Amino acid sequence: MNSFHVTGTRRRDDRGAPPNDINPAAIGVNIFSPVGNFIQASVSGYFSVGCGTCANAHFNVNSIHISDDVDYIHGRHQIAFGVDYIRDQFNSINIWNSNGNFSFNGQYASGKTIGDSLAAFMLGTMNSFTQSANLENATRGAIFALYVQDTIKLKRNLTLNAGLRWDPTLAPYDNYDRGDSFSFAAFNAGTRSSVYTNAPAGLLFYGDPGIPRGFQHPHYFNLSPRLGLVWDPSGSGKQTIRVSSAILRDTEEMFYNERQTTNAPYGTSIDQPFPAGGFTNPWLGYAGGAPFPLPSPLPRDFRFPNAGVYVDLPLYLQPTYMLQWNISYQRQVTPNWLASISYLGNKTTHIWAGEDINPAVYIPGSSASPNLRRPLYLQNPALGIAYSSITRSDQNGNSHYNGLLLSLQHRFSRGFTLLTNYTYSHCISDVDFTGELAGSQYMNPYNRAMDRGSCNFDPRHQSNTSLIVSSPWKGQGVVNRVLGGWQFAPIVSIHSGLPINITDGVDISLDGINLDRPNYIGGNPYLSATDPRYYVNRTAFVVQPSGTFGNFGRDVVTAPPSVNFDFALSRNFQLRERYRFEARAEAFNAINHTNFNGPATGLNSSNFGVITSAGDPRILQFALKLHF
Question: 308, 494, 531, 563: least CB-packed within 10 angstroms?
Answer without folding.
Answer: 531
